[in-house]
Each structure stands twice: as C-alpha cells, then as structure tokens.
Amino acid sequence: MSRIVVVGDALLDRDVRGTVDRLCPDAPAPVVQQQDVVERPGGAALAALLARRGGAEVTLLSPIGLDAAGLRLSTLLEQVGVAVAPWRDPAATIEKERVLVRERPMVRLDRGGGARQLPEPPPASVRAFAEADAVLVSDYGRGAAGALAIRNAIRSAVRRGTPVVWDPHPRGLRPVQGIALVTPNTSEVRHFDAPSRVNGENDDSGLVSLICSAQRLLAEWRTAGVCVTRGFDGAALVTDGGLPLVVPVDDPDFDPIDTCGAGDAFAAQCAAAFASGAVMSEAVQSAVQQAASYVAAGGALGLMHAGHRRMATARGRGAGAPAKLVATGGCFDLLHAGHVTMLQRARQLGDRLVVLLNSDESVRRLKGRGRPIQAASDRAAVLRSLSCVDDVIVFDGDTPIEALRQLKPQVFVKGGDYASTTLPEVPVMAEWDGVVVTVPYLAGRSTSGIVDQIESAHVV
Predict the structure, then answer these.
(1) Residue 203 annotated among the catalytic residues of the structure
(2) Domain check: are 128 and 217 in the same one?
(3) CA angle at 83 for the pair 77 and 85, rounded to the nearest 5°
(4) Are residues 103 and 191 both part of a single domain?
(5) Is there a cis peptide before residue 372, judged by omega within 30 degrees of 0?
(6) Stretch among 48-52, 192-196, 275-279 having the lowest mean pLDDT
C-alpha cells in the first residue's frame, strides 16, 4: 500500500439540508425546514479523505484546534482511517456551514479562524515525510504550508526524489522549488500570473492564454510541471522542454449538483498516481477523469450523503470556453481507433476542428513506396464523415506550415506521441499567438502496424 502525507489547512464542513415552501412574513427570505445535518472533513482534511478512499495509507499533518469542531474533525478522519499527526492550532477551528435546498446551496455561514501565531509542528509529526511515497500540500491560505519545519521537510523530500504535489491558494505562499507538480485552477492562475501579464494581453480563461500564464509560472516557481485545472474542459499540463498536454474530460455533458472538492479530488489523485509510480502525464490523465467522476457522483454531497444519485443533463459551453478554431494534421491513411480518439479530444478544445491532410505526393515522400493506400479524396471523405471533424484541407508540403498560416487556428493539436518543442509548427503558431499542444492517445495503434499485419496474413 502506498503512503501519502497530506499537509495543509483543515476545516470542518457542514451541510444543513431542508425544504422551502414559504417566505418569512417579515422579510423576503425563504424559510428552510431543516431535514438533516451532515458533517465532513474540509480543506486539506477532505484531500486526505479522498486519498484514503483511493486506497493509500494517509497521514494528515494539519493544525487542528482542541475545540468541539476540531475534535469532531479529528473523529471524522479517524473513522475513515486517516492518521492525524499531532499539531495544535491555538485558534478556533474553521467551520463552513451550507444551507441546501434541493441539493443547491442557499447560503453559507463561516465561523472560526481569526488571527493567531501558529506554532511549529512537533518534530515527531514531521518525521512522517521521511516514509512517504508522495506528499500533497493542500494550501488553503491559513499558514500551514508556510511553517518553517514543513517547508524544510518538503525540501528534504524533493532531495530524496519524493514527488510533491502542491494545490495552491490565492492567500497562500508560493510553492517550494523543485517539487513535481502545482495544480492551480483557472482563477488561481490569473491571480498568480497577474504581475507578469503585459498590457492588453488576453485576460480570459481561454486555453492559449492559460497555457502562456502556466508557462510563466513554471519558470517562476521552478517546478517540474504546472497543471491548470479547467473544470469541465479538463486540464492543461505544461512542463519544461515539452509541448503542453491538454487532457479533456471523457464525458463532460452533465450538470453538476456540487463541485465542492473537485480540486482536492484532482490533487489527491495526482499524489496517489505518483505514489504508485506513474509519470506526470499519466498522473494528470487519471486525475482529470477521477475529478470528473467525483463531481458526476455528486461531489461532496455524493461523498457523504447516503442514497445520492447523479443527476445529469446536457451542458452547453459557458464561462471558460476554449479556443474557437482548432487544427490538427496527418496522413490518416487507414483511419483507426487512435486517430478517432485524437480527433475527438482535439474537437473538445474548440468550437471547430479542421484537419490538415497530407496530399498523395506528400504521403509518398514521407512514407515511401506503396503509400498512401487510399487517395486523398477518399481519406478526406472518411474524415468528413466524423461528427468531430468540421472541415478537411489537403496540403502538398511535407509540413502543414503554409496551411496553418492561411488558417491561423488558435490551437494546433499533435498526437500524444509527439513531445518535442522543436516541431516546425511551434514557431509558426507563435506568429499569431497560437499554441501547439498534445492530447492523450491510444498506444499501440498505427497505420504502419495495420499494414504489416495485413501483409503478414497474406504471406504463404
């Protein structure tokens, strides 16, 4: 069993569920008839709970008070098998109470917290870092991630090669240098990158702008990777020396009941994947789908409330809409499942997908005698029959550079087996502030492999 240390600021969350059938006689406010109350770990404690439910052995290192709310929080964690390392908070435990009607929040009441001088954690508690397979810093801006002993322990973990995931907060501190991955959401990226954006730079949550901000933060924070979580649009991972990897949600068309904790679910899965030996791209891909599954199952409501079921409806594009025009390219000689998966994921990044298709002469120069197997007109017809493809443009060169200059898409997509930033398309896309990204691909599928199989089957 892998071992994960979660460090950060823990809260006690409480949901008060009820019904409304009238307004107050003295004010235009609904009268909520209370039905039940459910308490659950929040903040870093929720991240620890989610990591534990994923099967890891989890230790939470968080300042927790000895008041009633703190004792209740510790009990909830112990009940799910999370080990709580001693670290006393002199301030009152923060409680966040939501009043819900038909599973939708009506109002939230916050109590606790306040200014305090946070003591350093006991040395015995900090020793948990030494045995961890991965560390998750769940920073909720209350100071736990800034304790000197904690930052020194994280630096030691980095030197040992222990992967560290940092889930940041606008009121928190910058990550420790050298860690594996930082996982800000779109608003957090805008907050952290605000001083670096030049006048007139796009300030929306579009994919190209987010990737530019993430690349600046990668250089500033000096981490191995920065992964921007984009809600229903998945996540975008940037690393030093590699093309950005954009991971869409496999099934994004549902209306969430409760998105509370989605970022915690993402970060916890990243830490769990690292602890099990996954590389960064694998960790991010699994985290996108895990977070989506968490939200689809009801989020925090589905986590703690018995009998909850997913309520799904079609969802349209709203805030955080991706780039409008996306392009990809290739020969697509024998269309296979790998091609289709890549095209579907590319289409999720924008409103239109244009395929730049190598002409017959271009394929012949690239692939040699006997190729293409199908003429460009047939290959284009098959591609146009796919619902994810909006148009096909045939080009004669060895690269689609001239076609890109005419089309000027915001995003150009390569299959996930391309990682080099020396691709000729990279500087061309930069001419109009476009970006080249990769998407996950199905390994083991290739046209050449299919051709070899067919030829082998006919050998006498």
Answers:
(1) no
(2) yes
(3) 110
(4) yes
(5) yes
(6) 192-196
CA torsion angle 335 337 341 346 (round to 10)? -10
Position 11 in a domain: yes
In a domain, 318, yes or no: no
| Cα separation, 125 vs 62, whole angstroms | 10
**The last residue of a domain, from among 304, 335, 362:** 304
292/184 same-domain check: yes
Rg (CA), the chain: 25
Both tokens assigned to 273: 């994947």
Q: Give CA–CA dist 175/145, Å, rounded.
A: 9
Residues 151 and 144: their CA atoms lie apart, in Å, by 10
Q: Pick the catalytic residue: 13, 139, 193, 264?
A: 264
Distances from the Cα of 8 to the Cαs of 42, 87, 216, in angstroms? 11, 11, 25
Structure confidence by residue, pLDDT tens digits, 14-67? 999 999 999 999 988 999 999 999 999 999 999 999 999 888 999 999 999 999
Taking alpha carbons only, the member of 62, 42, 222 closest to residue 136 is 62
- Tell me how many degrees the CA angle 60-155-114 measures, rounded to the nearest 5: 50
Q: Do residues 7 and 100 share a domain? A: yes
The answer to whether the CB of 165 falls within 8 A of the CB of 181 is yes
Is residue 151 domain-shared with residue 215, that is, in the same domain? yes
Give per-residue pLDDT as tens, 386-397.
Answer: 999 998 999 999
Identify the residue whose tokens are 């052995």. 57
Residues 211 and 349 in one domain: no
Amino acid letter, residue 286: S
| The two three-digit tokens of residue 158, written as one number | 């980095």
Residue 320 lies in a domain: no
Residues 234, 343: one domain? no
Number of domains in the chain: 2
Domain ranges, residue 105? 3-304
User: Within 13 Å of residue 274, how many CA atoms lie on the same side as its CB?
Assistant: 26
* Residues 3 and 132: beta-carbon distance below 8 Å: yes
Q: Which of 250, 253, 259, 322 is nearest to 286 (CA)?
A: 250
Q: Where is average pLDDT lowest: 106-115, 388-397, 436-445?
A: 436-445
pTM across the whole model: 0.83
pLDDT at 113: 84
Structure tokens of 338? 């790998």
Residue closest to 185 by CA, chosen among 213, 148, 144: 213
Q: Which H or E run includes 121? A: none
Residue 164's Cβ-count burial label (10 Å; 0-12, 13-18, 19+) is buried
Tokens (6 digits) for 242: 């590699």
Residue 382, both tokens: 């098959």
* pLDDT at 135 exceeding the cut of 80: yes
With respect to residue 311, please indicate whether it lies within any of the assigned structural domains.
no
